[in-house]
Design brief:
heterodimer, A: mainly alpha, 14 helices, B: MetI-like fold
Chain lengths: ~280, ~260
């Protein structure tokens, strides 16, 4: 009651407006975000823990989990290396066309996931540019691990770079110049001066990159061929089970992915809260 | 400073190998059909129907998100209430949750035996397996774009101009409409446009709830996959090029619009 009776500042909303807007916002989030999340877990457990556990430990599910981990283990470090190289070049040196390069790095974010997979089928598919040559040499890229890795690398391409570029540009190059002038080599400057300055932002970028790499569906769906136990990642396994009317299995695997998302969100919030000043400026809120 | 040649060289090589050359393959491919073949391909009724649905549903979802995204951002920045941090973190869920998971969850939720779809179907409203289902999924994935774009700008907004408006006798609503909204408009537009652009290309969260009836609830990205399954690579590439072109033209227009808005200040 006290809050309502206290005279209100001129820039404060009317208490009634506050209540209505808060209710709308919370209601919208509950309806559109919370209920779908709750559905995933509730549908997985609808026939008890036992059934959900069996669906997760069945051989095709294990194969899907292993493939997902393998793909992320290849794609994420490569994109991390790229992000570090790109931000080093862009933030520490001046050259023409820098802004254009930054725009090019961001392209994969504005391309549909399906198109991201399509481009690799057009190159490596049976009727693609290299399709016949690959067939002659018995090399499989599309409908096999390399295609899945390439599509994943494409969609997660900008994550690390776009976290590091603004931060490293802000930090400038004076510390590195000092290290080099004191006789440090390029690599030791990078590991002893630059890396400690950017470690939390790097972790932040890798975290988002990894979440997307493990959860990517559209792009991977185009290049995978959906071969059970062989080229199905976890999201694709979810699709196959769901289309087979094996709802408990589909939602059990989906719960695992949803848990991954929740862990990612928690770590992300933690990083934003604890190391706000050490990650890029646009996350400080 | 050492390492320029190596880092830029690696950057350009990796960028070309993973992004630029594959996109070039997409842009070159459809022209083996010739201009007429390309035109016939994209003017096919089924393709046109899918484009209409994809862009129409994306536009409606983006509009819904612009309204509710503004409310959510406003409440999260201006008000204090228990559980605010949790709600704030939850806003990022559509970024973090794999799209296939969102897709089957929404589909189960809005099916005629689902928690929301059940009561609605008793009232005669059908959501799942109709174009409305497509819109619901696109609202889900677009929300964080509007909220996350608005939040920092809203937090930095000068309270002084709101105070000035109040001292000059404006009601709170007048202040909002004549002072706050104009200051937020460019950001709101950006966030809405980002939600729209994301929605146009979205696949995973849509296909489960859409029902995918040709000419009715079939989105354009799905049509690309269908063409690929029929080994019609050039046809798939033609639709892909159209989608790519439209999203780039859209983003360029938006950039130009923003430049114009900021030059008027």
């Amino acid at each position: 009651m006290r809050a309502i009776l206290r005279p209100r500042a001129a820039t404060d909303d009317h208490p009634l407006v506050k209540i209505v807007l808060s209710a709308l916002a919370i209601g919208f989030i509950a309806l559109f975000l919370f209920m779908p999340l709750l559905t995933v877990f509730s549908e997985a457990l609808v026939q008890g823990w036992r059934m959900a556990w069996d669906a997760l430990t069945e051989s095709d599910a294990i194969a899907a989990i292993r493939l997902t981990l393998l793909v992320a283990a290849i794609a994420v470090p490569l994109n991390m290396a790229f992000g570090l190289a790109a931000s080093w070049a862009i933030a520490k040196f001046d050259f023409r066309g820098k802004n254009f390069l930054i725009t090019l790095i961001d392209i994969p974010f504005s391309v549909s996931p399906v198109v991201s997979g399509l481009v690799f089928v057009l190159i490596f598919g049976l009727q693609g540019w290299l399709g016949q040559d690959l067939r002659d040499h018995d090399i499989k890229i599309v409908f096999a691990l390399p295609g899945i890795v390439l599509a994943t690398m494409f969609v997660t391409f900008p994550f690390v770079a776009r976290e590091l570029i603004p931060l490293m540009t802000d930090q400038g190059r004076s510390e590195e110049e000092a290290a080099v002038s004191l006789g440090a080599s390029g690599w030791s400057t990078f590991f002893r001066v630059t890396l400690p300055n950017i470690k939390w932002a790097l972790l932040y970028g890798v975290l988002l990159c990894n979440a997307r790499a493990m959860g990517e569906f559209g792009a991977v769906s185009v290049v995978s061929g959906h071969i059970r136990g062989l080229t199905n990642t976890m999201p694709l396994h979810v699709e196959v089970l769901y289309n087979d009317y094996q709802y408990v299995g589909a939602f059990a695997v989906a719960s695992l992915l949803a848990l991954l998302a929740l862990v990612t969100l928690t770590l992300k919030s933690l990083l934003e809260w604890r190391f706000a000043d050490e990650i890029a400026a646009d996350h400080r809120h | 400073m050492p390492g320029f040649g190596f880092s830029l060289g690696f950057t350009l090589f990796y960028l070309s190998a993973i992004v630029l050359i594959p996109l070039a393959a997409l842009i070159i491919r459809p022209w083996e059909l010739g201009w007429n073949g390309f035109w016939t391909e994209i003017m096919a009724p089924r393709v046109l129907a899918s484009l209409k649905l994809t862009f129409g549903a994306s536009a409606i979802a983006a509009l819904v998100n612009s309204v509710f995204g503004l409310i959510v951002a406003w409440v999260l920045v201006r008000y204090r209430f228990p559980g605010k941090r949790l709600i704030d973190a939850l806003v990022d869920l559509p970024f973090a949750l794999p799209t296939a998971v969102a897709g089957i969850a929404l589909s189960a939720l809005y099916a005629t035996n689902g928690w929301i779809g059940g009561p609605l179907s008793k009232a005669g409203i059908k959501i799942a397996y109709t174009p409305y289902g497509v819109m619901i999924a696109l609202v889900f994935i677009g929300l964080p774009f509007v909220v996350r774009t608005l939040q920092p700008v809203l937090a930095d907004l000068h309270r002084e101009s709101e105070e000035a408006a109040a001292t000059l006798g404006a009601t709170r609503f007048q202040t909002f409409r004549r002072v706050i909204l104009p200051m937020l408009a460019p950001t709101l537009l950006t966030g809405t446009a980002m939600a729209f652009a994301r929605a146009v290309g979205e696949y995973g969260s849509v296909i489960f709830i859409a029902g995918n009836l040709p000419m009715v609830s079939e989105i354009t990205p799905l049509l690309i996959i269908i063409k690929l399954q029929e080994y019609d690579y050039a046809g798939a590439a033609a639709i892909g090029v159209i989608m790519l072109a439209v999203s780039f033209i859209f983003l360029l227009t938006l950039n130009a619009l923003q430049a114009w808005v900021s030059s008027r200040r």
